[in-house]
Amino acid sequence: MLCRSILCRCAAVTAPLHAGKRPLLNTEKKHGFTHKDTRRIDELNMVAYEWQHDATEAVYYHIDTDDRNCTFCIGFRTPAENNKGASHVLEHTVLCGSKKYPVRDPFFMMMRRSLSTFMNAMTGADYTLYPFATTNQQDFCNLLDVYLDAVFYPLLREEDFKQEGHRVEVETAGDGMGKRLVYNGVVFNEMRGVVSEPSQHYAHSLMRLMLPGTHYEHISGGYPPDVLQLTHEELVAFHGKHYHPSNSITLTYGAQHPENWMEILNNYFSSFSKGGVVTVPTLAPEQRFHQMKKISLQGPLNSMGNPQRQKRISVSFGVQQEENRLEDMVDLSVLDSLLSSGPSSPLYQALLESQIGSHYAPMRGYSSYLSSPFVSYGVEGVDEARPNAEEEVLNAVISTLQKVEKEGFDQRRVQSVIFQEELQQRHRAADYGVNLCTGLCSMGLCRAANNRWTSLIGCHTCGDWGKDGWHHFSHASRGTF
Fold it and tell me: C-alpha distances in angstroms, 197 versus 178, 269, 311, 359, 440?
């Protein structure tokens, strides 16, 4: 029996360490939070709780388990509005000092002094996350206070903006005889490397073409020439709009009752009144392709690769889903594994064993992390001299999908994929809680606005899997790239 849950895709889930049902926590109203929902997952020895903050309607979830490596994650909806990378620069700058901790770099100071097993921050296309994990409860409360003060009351000094975003510096020429002005900055330099990487360039171009008119047209991390146009005033305004409790999801995980953590959360949340929730837009029906399109683009070359085998070709499909139903998301993830994972998969045999290309193209499979997901299959390393390569890839993908739709999958392969999923669920890695929290938090921010969040943790059988899965592939929305 396959656990049809988002946990299968967001993190490796383990079997319970101890037999028996986990006792329920006291869920009476505490510290300004009202209990909304409880979902027991006995197979994983977990219980998921949902609370809502009364004043701001901020949502807070706790996963009660017997793991002593407790995890915290707070995330904000931050869909990109342009290519200036405001969300990325802000992610760096909020960690450069706050109202309560006005030191130059409290984040790295805590890394040296803390007993944490994980500390970081990350920016996605739709969201910004701030997770940490530690086995020490006093350390957890200390880190929680540092993180919350950083995200809600950052100093956002202009000198920190120049350090993390962009600035102009005087550079001495190599011969020491002259000087010149150059641009510098942590995010600016980081994104120079990212956008020049061929796979990253290809992946973003594919998203931009498949999801026109959405925030995915923009590079959330920032496009270097546009990063230089970001102003300090725009950064401060972006923080004021997006970093509000009402626009957040908070998640904790571990073997401690969250009452003490709720008190700290309430101390920060109560300073705000109810605010607006930033919408993560989805692709409107009129924006989708209504016929197949063939698009060719030029991009940077891989300097380490064969210069005659730099071509990448993908066939991509829009996905038909009913209001981001979680069951559809899991169905498509399993379907993707059956189609393309491993040498015995039909698309691997059609695209790679046929030697059309050397590897799968970037963004292969089902992009479950997008608010408007799509599926994409293709190859890279295609010989420039190969005639009709585009038609070969298109025919290989379409004919394979049609054959599998007609004949189905070999039951031994279905059982193998299900078995692998179950093994994943039973594997507990050191970063299990972090992967679980960041995965569920990001999914909740960009995909699950209309779903009961605790249903993300619900487990369902898959006895009826595959009967109707094909209707998700919208052939009217396909385009070869």
Answer: 32, 40, 14, 17, 28
Give residue 478's pLDDT: 47
Q: How far is the C-alpha of 251 from the C-alpha of 24, rounded, in Å?
A: 18
Give the Å distances, CA to CA, from 224 to 141, 285, 291.
37, 32, 34
Burial 402-437 (b: 16+ CB within 10 A, else e): eebeeeebeeebbebbbeebbebbeeeeebbbbbbb
Catalytic residue of the set 50, 81, 164, 190: 164
User: Residue 98 gets which letter from DSSP?
Assistant: B
| Residue among 43, 81, 91, 323 flagged as catalytic | 91
CA atoms within 13 A on the CB side of 459: 17
Mean pLDDT (the chain, rounded): 84
Q: Give the three-state DSSP class for 341.
A: coil
Token look-up 């725009």 returns: 234
pTM for the full predicted model? 0.87
In this structure, what DSSP letter does residue 326 have?
H
How far CA 180 is from CA of 167, 169, 332, in Å, comes to: 14, 8, 53
**SS3 sequence, 361-373?**
CCCCEECCCCCCC
Is pLDDT at 451 greater than 50 in this prediction? no
Q: How confident is the model at residue 79 (pLDDT cuts 50, 70, 90)?
A: very high
81 is catalytic: no
Decide if 380 is catalytic. no
| Domains, the chain | 285-480 (3.30.830.10)
What pLDDT does residue 175 have?
66
Alpha carbon distance 354, 83 (integer Å)? 39
- Output the DSSP codes for 381-439: EE-TT-TTHHHHHHHHHHHHHHHHHHH---HHHHHHHHHHHHHHHT---TTHHHHHHHH
Q: At residue 401, what is the residue type?
A: L
Instruction: Classify the C-alpha dihedral 251-257-261-267 as positive or negative.
Output: positive
What separation in angstroms does the CA of 305 have from each of 82, 199, 203, 421?
A: 32, 12, 18, 34
CA pair distance 183, 320, nearest whole angstrom: 44
Q: What is the C-alpha end-to-end distance of the chain, expressed in Å?
A: 37
Q: How far apart are CA 338 and CA 135, in angstroms?
A: 38
Percentage of residues of the chain with pLDDT beyond 70: 83
